[in-house]
Amino acid sequence: MDKSGPHSRDKQKATEKRTKEKKKKFSSRDVFYSVDHATSANSFYTCRFLSQKANREILDMQGDANAKFAWVE
Fold first, then answer.
1. Residue 2 or residue 63, greater confidence
2. Does the predicted TM-score (pTM) go above 0.85?
3. Which residue has the higher pLDDT, 71 or 55?
4. Is the pLDDT assigned to residue 14 strictly greater than 70?
5. Do the Cβ atoms of 25 and 19 come closer than 8 Å?
6. I need a labelling partner for 27 at 20 to 30 A (CA). Which of 18, 36, 42, 67 fits?
7. Where are the stretches annotated Disordered (predicted)?
8. Number of C-alpha atoms within 13 angstroms, CB side, residue 3?
9. Distances from the Cα of 48 to the Cα of 8, 41, 54, angstroms
């Protein structure tokens, strides 16, 4: 950076300000809420997947039971 000009200090301050603005994009509260929502969504979809898997297993067991019952008749 050129420090010889009369406005060089202003340029330096502007550069420092832009650097600080780039670094601070999220507040800690925003980050916490983002992580919390992501965790909640992950838990929701994991439970939903496991529930669907359990439902498929139950339907398969019912299908097997119906097949055995039909064989007995």
1. 63
2. no
3. 55
4. yes
5. no
6. 42
7. 1-25
8. 2
9. 60, 10, 10
Distances (CA, A) of 23 to 16, 17, 19, 20, 67: 11, 10, 6, 5, 65
Euclidean distance between CA atoms 61 and 49, whole angstroms: 18
Confidence of residue 5 (pLDDT cuts 50, 70, 90): low
Q: Which two tokens stand for residue 65?
A: 């039971």
Give me the count of residues in the chain. 73
Is 80 exceeded by the pLDDT of residue 42? yes
Calculate Rg over the CA atoms of the chain.
31
